[in-house]
Specification:
249 residues; alpha+beta; five-stranded antiparallel β-sheet; three-stranded antiparallel β-sheet; 47% helix
Protein backbone atom coordinates (compact mmCIF):
# COMPACT_ATOMS: atom_id res chain seq x y z
CA UNK A 1 0.00 0.00 0.00
CA UNK A 2 2.81 2.38 -0.89
CA UNK A 3 0.52 4.87 -2.66
CA UNK A 4 -2.44 4.50 -0.30
CA UNK A 5 -3.88 7.59 1.34
CA UNK A 6 -5.48 7.34 4.80
CA UNK A 7 -9.00 8.80 4.59
CA UNK A 8 -10.63 7.55 7.80
CA UNK A 9 -9.42 6.13 11.08
CA UNK A 10 -10.95 4.77 14.24
CA UNK A 11 -9.92 2.48 17.06
CA UNK A 12 -10.53 -0.85 15.28
CA UNK A 13 -9.89 -0.04 11.62
CA UNK A 14 -8.30 2.33 9.11
CA UNK A 15 -9.60 3.07 5.63
CA UNK A 16 -7.30 3.94 2.75
CA UNK A 17 -7.79 5.06 -0.86
CA UNK A 18 -5.42 3.58 -3.42
CA UNK A 19 -6.25 4.52 -7.00
CA UNK A 20 -9.85 3.47 -7.67
CA UNK A 21 -9.90 1.10 -4.69
CA UNK A 22 -10.82 1.49 -1.03
CA UNK A 23 -8.96 -0.69 1.47
CA UNK A 24 -10.35 -1.39 4.95
CA UNK A 25 -7.54 -2.50 7.25
CA UNK A 26 -8.61 -3.99 10.58
CA UNK A 27 -6.51 -3.85 13.73
CA UNK A 28 -4.95 -7.15 14.96
CA UNK A 29 -7.43 -7.41 17.85
CA UNK A 30 -10.36 -7.38 15.39
CA UNK A 31 -11.86 -10.85 15.08
CA UNK A 32 -11.00 -12.72 11.88
CA UNK A 33 -14.50 -14.20 11.87
CA UNK A 34 -16.03 -10.69 11.97
CA UNK A 35 -13.89 -9.57 9.02
CA UNK A 36 -14.84 -12.61 6.97
CA UNK A 37 -18.50 -12.28 7.97
CA UNK A 38 -18.50 -8.62 6.86
CA UNK A 39 -17.03 -9.59 3.49
CA UNK A 40 -19.52 -12.44 3.09
CA UNK A 41 -22.48 -10.19 3.98
CA UNK A 42 -21.31 -7.63 1.44
CA UNK A 43 -20.77 -10.24 -1.28
CA UNK A 44 -24.28 -11.59 -0.75
CA UNK A 45 -25.79 -8.10 -0.99
CA UNK A 46 -23.81 -7.57 -4.22
CA UNK A 47 -25.96 -10.31 -5.75
CA UNK A 48 -29.00 -8.01 -5.58
CA UNK A 49 -29.47 -5.11 -7.99
CA UNK A 50 -28.63 -2.50 -5.32
CA UNK A 51 -25.83 -0.02 -5.99
CA UNK A 52 -23.03 -1.22 -3.71
CA UNK A 53 -19.23 -1.20 -4.15
CA UNK A 54 -17.81 -4.47 -5.43
CA UNK A 55 -15.42 -6.46 -3.23
CA UNK A 56 -12.16 -7.36 -4.99
CA UNK A 57 -10.21 -9.19 -2.31
CA UNK A 58 -9.94 -10.22 1.32
CA UNK A 59 -6.32 -10.62 2.38
CA UNK A 60 -3.68 -9.84 5.00
CA UNK A 61 -1.72 -6.56 4.84
CA UNK A 62 1.25 -6.17 7.21
CA UNK A 63 -0.23 -8.84 9.47
CA UNK A 64 -3.70 -7.27 9.49
CA UNK A 65 -6.85 -8.46 7.75
CA UNK A 66 -8.05 -6.18 4.95
CA UNK A 67 -10.99 -5.92 2.56
CA UNK A 68 -10.48 -4.21 -0.81
CA UNK A 69 -13.51 -2.69 -2.56
CA UNK A 70 -14.35 -0.18 -5.26
CA UNK A 71 -13.81 3.41 -4.16
CA UNK A 72 -17.00 5.37 -4.83
CA UNK A 73 -16.24 9.01 -5.63
CA UNK A 74 -18.84 11.40 -4.24
CA UNK A 75 -20.28 13.01 -1.13
CA UNK A 76 -22.11 11.26 1.66
CA UNK A 77 -25.77 12.12 1.96
CA UNK A 78 -24.97 13.45 5.44
CA UNK A 79 -22.41 15.89 4.00
CA UNK A 80 -24.97 17.10 1.46
CA UNK A 81 -27.62 17.52 4.15
CA UNK A 82 -25.19 19.55 6.25
CA UNK A 83 -24.16 21.72 3.29
CA UNK A 84 -27.69 22.31 1.97
CA UNK A 85 -30.17 22.47 4.87
CA UNK A 86 -32.72 24.02 2.52
CA UNK A 87 -32.89 20.65 0.72
CA UNK A 88 -33.66 18.66 3.86
CA UNK A 89 -37.02 17.39 2.62
CA UNK A 90 -35.57 16.35 -0.74
CA UNK A 91 -32.71 14.47 0.89
CA UNK A 92 -34.93 12.87 3.51
CA UNK A 93 -37.27 11.60 0.79
CA UNK A 94 -34.27 10.09 -1.01
CA UNK A 95 -33.11 8.47 2.25
CA UNK A 96 -36.52 6.88 2.88
CA UNK A 97 -36.90 5.74 -0.73
CA UNK A 98 -33.49 4.07 -0.63
CA UNK A 99 -34.30 2.33 2.61
CA UNK A 100 -37.60 1.07 1.25
CA UNK A 101 -35.76 -0.28 -1.81
CA UNK A 102 -33.26 -2.11 0.41
CA UNK A 103 -36.04 -3.56 2.56
CA UNK A 104 -37.84 -4.86 -0.54
CA UNK A 105 -34.94 -7.23 -1.29
CA UNK A 106 -34.44 -10.83 -0.18
CA UNK A 107 -31.01 -12.26 0.61
CA UNK A 108 -31.85 -15.68 2.08
CA UNK A 109 -28.31 -16.67 3.09
CA UNK A 110 -27.86 -13.79 5.54
CA UNK A 111 -28.11 -14.35 9.30
CA UNK A 112 -31.52 -13.88 10.90
CA UNK A 113 -32.07 -10.50 12.57
CA UNK A 114 -34.06 -12.04 15.44
CA UNK A 115 -31.31 -14.54 16.24
CA UNK A 116 -28.71 -11.77 16.31
CA UNK A 117 -30.87 -9.57 18.56
CA UNK A 118 -31.67 -12.40 20.97
CA UNK A 119 -27.95 -13.01 21.36
CA UNK A 120 -27.21 -9.31 21.88
CA UNK A 121 -29.91 -8.97 24.56
CA UNK A 122 -28.42 -11.96 26.40
CA UNK A 123 -25.03 -10.22 26.44
CA UNK A 124 -26.29 -7.00 28.05
CA UNK A 125 -25.85 -6.12 31.72
CA UNK A 126 -29.59 -5.60 32.07
CA UNK A 127 -31.25 -7.42 34.97
CA UNK A 128 -32.77 -10.84 34.35
CA UNK A 129 -36.39 -9.62 34.44
CA UNK A 130 -35.74 -6.93 31.83
CA UNK A 131 -33.86 -9.36 29.61
CA UNK A 132 -36.73 -11.85 29.91
CA UNK A 133 -39.30 -9.21 28.93
CA UNK A 134 -37.19 -8.10 25.95
CA UNK A 135 -36.64 -11.69 24.79
CA UNK A 136 -40.38 -12.35 25.08
CA UNK A 137 -41.29 -9.20 23.19
CA UNK A 138 -38.79 -9.94 20.42
CA UNK A 139 -40.01 -13.51 20.07
CA UNK A 140 -43.59 -12.27 19.66
CA UNK A 141 -42.75 -9.85 16.84
CA UNK A 142 -43.66 -11.01 13.30
CA UNK A 143 -40.96 -12.99 11.51
CA UNK A 144 -40.02 -11.44 8.15
CA UNK A 145 -37.11 -12.05 5.79
CA UNK A 146 -36.44 -8.62 4.31
CA UNK A 147 -32.89 -7.37 3.73
CA UNK A 148 -31.99 -5.15 6.72
CA UNK A 149 -28.91 -2.91 6.52
CA UNK A 150 -28.39 -2.69 10.28
CA UNK A 151 -26.71 0.73 10.28
CA UNK A 152 -28.71 2.73 7.75
CA UNK A 153 -27.94 6.41 8.23
CA UNK A 154 -26.98 9.27 5.86
CA UNK A 155 -23.24 8.70 6.34
CA UNK A 156 -23.58 5.28 4.70
CA UNK A 157 -24.95 6.66 1.44
CA UNK A 158 -22.58 8.12 -1.15
CA UNK A 159 -24.01 10.27 -3.92
CA UNK A 160 -21.89 10.30 -7.08
CA UNK A 161 -21.58 13.46 -9.18
CA UNK A 162 -24.18 12.11 -11.62
CA UNK A 163 -26.65 11.71 -8.71
CA UNK A 164 -26.39 7.92 -8.41
CA UNK A 165 -26.64 6.80 -4.78
CA UNK A 166 -24.44 3.98 -3.48
CA UNK A 167 -25.03 2.22 -0.16
CA UNK A 168 -21.96 1.23 1.85
CA UNK A 169 -21.05 -0.61 5.08
CA UNK A 170 -22.97 -3.88 5.05
CA UNK A 171 -21.17 -5.36 8.05
CA UNK A 172 -24.40 -5.52 10.10
CA UNK A 173 -26.68 -6.82 7.32
CA UNK A 174 -29.27 -9.44 8.26
CA UNK A 175 -32.65 -10.67 7.07
CA UNK A 176 -35.62 -9.78 9.21
CA UNK A 177 -38.42 -7.34 9.96
CA UNK A 178 -38.27 -4.01 8.11
CA UNK A 179 -39.58 -2.07 11.09
CA UNK A 180 -36.64 -3.20 13.21
CA UNK A 181 -34.27 -1.60 10.69
CA UNK A 182 -36.39 1.56 10.67
CA UNK A 183 -36.34 1.70 14.47
CA UNK A 184 -32.54 1.46 14.37
CA UNK A 185 -32.28 4.32 11.85
CA UNK A 186 -34.59 6.38 14.06
CA UNK A 187 -32.34 5.78 17.07
CA UNK A 188 -29.26 6.67 15.02
CA UNK A 189 -30.76 10.10 14.25
CA UNK A 190 -31.32 10.61 17.98
CA UNK A 191 -27.81 9.44 18.85
CA UNK A 192 -26.43 11.93 16.31
CA UNK A 193 -28.29 14.73 18.13
CA UNK A 194 -30.87 15.10 15.36
CA UNK A 195 -34.10 14.49 17.29
CA UNK A 196 -36.35 16.63 15.07
CA UNK A 197 -34.96 15.05 11.91
CA UNK A 198 -35.47 11.59 13.45
CA UNK A 199 -39.11 12.33 14.21
CA UNK A 200 -39.59 13.72 10.71
CA UNK A 201 -37.92 10.65 9.21
CA UNK A 202 -40.13 8.22 11.12
CA UNK A 203 -43.33 10.00 10.09
CA UNK A 204 -42.22 10.12 6.46
CA UNK A 205 -41.21 6.46 6.35
CA UNK A 206 -44.46 5.33 7.94
CA UNK A 207 -46.51 7.49 5.60
CA UNK A 208 -44.75 6.21 2.48
CA UNK A 209 -44.85 2.57 3.56
CA UNK A 210 -48.32 2.68 5.15
CA UNK A 211 -46.82 1.42 8.42
CA UNK A 212 -48.25 2.32 11.83
CA UNK A 213 -45.79 4.46 13.80
CA UNK A 214 -46.78 2.52 16.92
CA UNK A 215 -45.57 -0.70 15.29
CA UNK A 216 -42.10 0.74 14.64
CA UNK A 217 -42.04 2.17 18.17
CA UNK A 218 -42.60 -1.32 19.60
CA UNK A 219 -39.20 -2.26 18.18
CA UNK A 220 -37.33 0.65 19.79
CA UNK A 221 -36.63 -0.91 23.25
CA UNK A 222 -35.48 -4.13 21.56
CA UNK A 223 -33.19 -2.31 19.14
CA UNK A 224 -31.83 -0.09 21.91
CA UNK A 225 -30.99 -3.14 24.02
CA UNK A 226 -29.27 -4.91 21.12
CA UNK A 227 -27.09 -1.84 20.53
CA UNK A 228 -26.20 -1.52 24.20
CA UNK A 229 -23.62 -4.32 24.14
CA UNK A 230 -20.90 -2.43 22.25
CA UNK A 231 -22.17 1.09 22.82
CA UNK A 232 -19.70 3.73 24.03
CA UNK A 233 -20.31 5.21 27.45
CA UNK A 234 -21.66 8.38 25.84
CA UNK A 235 -24.57 6.38 24.38
CA UNK A 236 -25.31 4.01 27.24
CA UNK A 237 -27.49 6.30 29.38
CA UNK A 238 -29.52 7.33 26.34
CA UNK A 239 -30.08 3.73 25.25
CA UNK A 240 -31.09 2.71 28.78
CA UNK A 241 -33.73 5.45 28.69
CA UNK A 242 -35.34 3.71 25.68
CA UNK A 243 -35.26 0.23 27.14
CA UNK A 244 -38.69 0.33 28.67
CA UNK A 245 -40.56 -2.92 28.15
CA UNK A 246 -43.90 -1.33 28.97
CA UNK A 247 -45.66 -0.65 25.68
CA UNK A 248 -44.30 2.53 24.13
CA UNK A 249 -46.80 5.35 23.98
Amino acid sequence: MTNAKLIFSREDKKIYKEGDKLIKVFEPNYSKSNVLNEALNHARVEETDLNVPNIHSVNVVDGKWAITLDYIEGDTLQALMDAHPEKEDEYLNLFVDLQRTILSKKVPMLNKLKDKMQGKISQTDLDASTRYDLHTRLDAMPKHTNLCHGDFNPTNIIIKKDGTPYIIDWSHATQGNSSADVARSYLLFYLAGKKQLGDKYLKLYCKKSDTAIQYVQRWIPIVAASRLVKAPESEAAFLHSWIDVVDYE
